Structure formats: C-alpha cells, structure tokens
C-alpha cells in the first residue's frame, strides 16, 4: 500500500506546464514562461529551502504541493527560481571543471552551455516527457486508473526531474570533481574503484528515490513503488563492477562524457 497522506482530492482538468485553464478557444502562455524573467516574483528563499530539504528531509519538499494544489488548483509550481538557481550552480561548476581540465575561454563557454542546457534542462525535459507519456499512454492503467479525472501534468514532471537532478549534481559535478585526483591516480586500485563506483551508485539511488517521492506524493497515482525498481538494477551492476574490477570513472570514461562536444 502506498504511504500516501490522505488529502481531499480536487478533480480538475490537466494544467499545461502550469497554465491556468483557458476559456473558449483562447490560447494562454503557461505561467512558468510568463514568470521566466520576472525575478522579483521568484521565491529563491523557497528554492534554497527545497535544496536543503532534498538532502536531509526530501519528503518535506513534496508535502508542500498539497497546499499549492489547494490554492492554485495545479500540482505544478510555475516558479522557475529552482531552475535558475541550479543553473547558476552548474555555471560555477563548469567554470571550475573548465579551469582545471579545459583551460580555454571557448571551451569553458561550451562546457557551461553543455552542463546547463544539455545535462540539466535537456535531460529534465526528456525525463519529464517520458514520464508524462507513461502516465497518459499505454501505461495509464498501471499508474493512473481509467476514468481518473486528475491528470499527470508535464510541468509537475519537470519539477520532479529538476529536484531529482540536484543531489545527482552534488555527487557527480561537485564531489567527483573534488575526489577526481584520488579516483584517477591508480586505475587498478580497488579503493579508487570502490569509491568511484559507490559515488555513482549513490547518485543514481538518490535520483531514483527523489523521483519516486515526487510521484508518490500524488494521490491519484498508483503502483509508484515500481519507480524504485531501478535501484535494484543499479545495486546488482555495482556488485558486478566491483567483482570485475571495472571502475566507472576510469574505464567507463564517465568524466570524458561530461565534456562531450567540448
């Protein structure tokens, strides 16, 4: 049984990336994009609280969506402050990686664009589209019961993907950068292999768990525990990699993957 918190359901039509329901045939710009450049209206304090909570009490982040649903009649929060803040952190990280490993101005610019628009925003959009399609397509009977009036919003899927990316960012863009000299000093060293592979395992587990919490918080979704299945797969691959002595950082060329196209 899903550990859902019982809340009153409000059945409403799907909100398209946080857009308010339109009347007639008029087309309205989604509120997320309307607020994209309205910095005074962005709640950066809330974004910082969410980032902190994702590390120490991630369930609190998604409990707050109930209050937003009650007042705004949408699960999605059309506030790009979290996206902006994490993008800013990625720019700083790209600067550090660039100065250390690609010390040229052009390469640093390309690396910054790569980190923000491909790794972060691009992957979040792809993941959001895939999960939104799963919720409303062939797998609808698995996660959403037939006849359910509430629909999985693409904007909410984007919110979940963004928040799941934050702990992955800390693992693979910050901690890996700090530990990289140790992880690449001796490719045949078991400690280096263990630390590197465990770092990636922890990042993927955290990403999967935050994703699960995001969708498990929606009372109209069912069987969300299936979203935790990849953790078992990651754990098995982690054990096999240690037995085989295969290091993700060195042999998997994961670091070179960060610089793809640079």
TrEMBL record:
Native source species: Penicillium chermesinum
Membrane: is it a keyword of this entry?
Answer: yes
* Ranges that cross the membrane: 82-100, 107-127, 164-183, 190-215, 227-249
Q: Give the protein's recorded name.
A: UNC-50
Q: Which GO terms describe its cellular component?
A: Golgi membrane
**Per the annotation, which location comes first and is thus the protein's main one?**
membrane
Does Transmembrane helix appear among the keywords? yes
Q: Where is this region: Disordered?
A: 1-24
Cited InterPro entries: UNC-50
Similarity-based family: Belongs to the unc-50 family.
Give the record's membrane topology: Multi-pass membrane protein
PANTHER family given for it? PROTEIN UNC-50 HOMOLOG
Q: Signal peptide position in this chain?
A: none
* Record's keyword terms, sorted: Membrane, Transmembrane, Transmembrane helix
Compartments, as annotated in UniProt? Membrane
């Amino acid at each position: 049984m899903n550990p859902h918190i019982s809340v009153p359901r409000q059945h409403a039509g799907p909100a398209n990336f946080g857009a308010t329901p339109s009347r007639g045939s008029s087309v309205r710009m989604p509120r997320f994009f309307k607020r994209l450049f309205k910095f005074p209206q962005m709640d950066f304090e809330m974004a910082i609280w969410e980032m902190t909570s994702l590390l120490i009490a991630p369930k609190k982040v998604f409990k707050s969506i109930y209050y937003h649903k009650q007042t705004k009649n949408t699960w999605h929060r059309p506030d790009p402050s979290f996206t902006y803040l994490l993008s800013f952190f990625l720019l700083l990280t790209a600067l550090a990686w660039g100065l250390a490993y690609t010390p040229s101005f052009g390469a640093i610019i390309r690396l910054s664009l790569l980190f923000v628009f491909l790794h972060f925003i691009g992957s979040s959009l792809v993941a959001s589209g895939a999960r939104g399609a799963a919720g409303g397509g062939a797998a609808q009977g698995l996660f959403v019961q037939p006849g359910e009036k509430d629909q999985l919003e693409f904007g909410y899927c984007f919110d979940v993907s963004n928040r799941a990316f934050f702990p992955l960012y800390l693992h693979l863009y910050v901690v890996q950068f700090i530990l990289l000299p140790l992880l690449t000093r001796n490719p045949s060293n078991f400690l280096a292999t263990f630390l590197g592979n465990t770092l990636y395992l922890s990042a993927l587990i955290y990403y999967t768990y935050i994703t699960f919490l995001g969708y498990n918080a929606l009372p109209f979704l069912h069987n969300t525990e299936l979203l935790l299945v990849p953790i078992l797969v990651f754990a098995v691959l982690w054990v096999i990699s240690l037995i085989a002595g295969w290091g993700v950082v060195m042999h998997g060329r994961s670091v070179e993957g960060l610089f793809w196209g640079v």
